[in-house]
Amino acid sequence: MARSTHILNSSYYDSVVLMRVASQLKRQDGVTEVAMFMGTEGNHALLAQVGLTTVKSKDAGPQDLLIIVVADTEVCAESTTQEAIRMLNERVSGQDSELDYRPRTLDTALGFLPDATLATLSIPGEFAAREGSRCIDRGLNVFLFSDNVEIEDEISLKNKARKKNLLCMGPDCGTAYINGVGLGFANVIKSGRVGCIAASGTGLQAVVCELDRLGEGVSHGIGVGGRDLSREVNGIMTKYALELLEQDPATEVIILLSKPPHADVIAMLESLCSVMKTPIVTCFQGARLEGDTYVQASTLDEAAAMAACLVNGSDYVAHSFTEPQRVSALLDRGENKAAG
Fold first, then answer.
1. Which residues share a beta bridge with 254?
2. Model confidence over 180-198: pLDDT tens digits?
3. What is the CA angle 71-74-80, rounded to 5?
C-alpha cells in the first residue's frame, strides 16, 4: 500500500465538507482510505488510534488541513490527493457564487437579517470564543460547531450567554433542533411533544430518529457540547435548557442524554429536576442513578421508547433478547464484518 500525506497550511474547512469529500474519494477504485482533518490535538490522537499517522502529518497545526490517502499505488494516492484539493477549491468557488454578495462581518450579516436570533459558528477553535462572544453581545443564540476550544473559554461563553438568557450550544456541537429546524448534522423528523437535551450529537440523532419511527416527534433538541456535564463546566447550559423546556407548552416529556455526569453535577441536576413538573427520561450511558427523580433508560432506543410511552399515556414494556441462536448469528456476522 502507498500513502500520501499533504498539508494545506492556514486552510480551514468545515468538518462536514471534509467528510463529504473524503467519502466520495473513498469510493474510487484503488483507494483504501482518505483522512481529511484539521491538525488539532484531538484529530492527531484519532489518526494515531487508527494507524494513519505519518512523519509528515505531525507537522500539521490546528489551522492546517491534513490530507492522508492510502491507495494501491503511489500514483493513485497522489492523484487522489490532488483530486481532494480540487474538490475543496470547487466547493469554495461554488459557495462564493451562490449569492451576489456574501457578508464578511457579523454586523453586515445582521444588516441583511436584522431579526436573526441565532448564529452558527464553524471556525477555527482559537477564534470561536471571540466570535461567539460578539454574537452573544448582539443578542444571538449560538450554535458552536467548532471544536478545539479551551474549556475556560467555554465556561466564559456559557456564563455570558446565560446572563443574557441565550443559548450557547457547544462547543463541538454537531446537532440541534430548534422549533423543528435541524442544525448541523440533522435528520428530517416529525415535530412533536418530546424535548431533548444532549451532550452527544450522535446520541441526539439516534434518539430523534427512533422517536420518529415510533410515530412521535421532537419539540426541540438542544445540544450542549460534550463537556457541559463535567465538573468544570457544571452543566451551565443543561440547567438552562431544562428551565426552557419546562416552560415550553409544546414539550410534555424531556429526554436528557450524556456520558455519566460528574458527581457534583448529578447533585445539581437532582435538585433542579426534583421540583420540575415535566417528566424526565435520562440516558447516562454506563451509569445508573439512585432515587426516582428520573425515568432511567439504559440505551438510546429505550430512552426514545420510554418518552413515547409517557407522552401517549401508555406503559413501557421492556424488550429482551429471547432468541439466543439469532443473537449469536447477528454477533458472528458483526465480527466477520469487522474482521473484513
1. 195, 280
2. 899 998 999 999 999 999 9
3. 60
Determine the number of helices (DSSP H) and then strands (DSSP E) in the chain.
Answer: 11, 13
SS3 at position 16 = helix
- Count of CB atoms within 10 A of residue 107's CB? 9
- Strands (DSSP E) contained in 238-291 are 253-258, 280-284
- Tell me the three-class secondary structure of 73-101, residue by residue: CHHHHHHHHHHHHHHHHHHHHHHHHHCCC
Residue of 2, 1, 4 whose CA lies nearest to 83: 4
Q: How many residues does the chain have?
A: 340
- Cα–Cα distances in angstroms (integers) from residue 2 to residues 18, 28, 43, 65, 79, in the given order: 21, 15, 22, 20, 12
Q: What is the pLDDT of residues 53-72, one digit of tens each?
A: 999 999 999 889 999 999 99
3-state secondary structure of 221: strand
| Domains with residue ranges and CATH for the chain | 2-98 (3.30.70), 173-312 (3.40.50.261)
Residue 256 phi, psi dihedral angles, 5° rounding: -115, 120
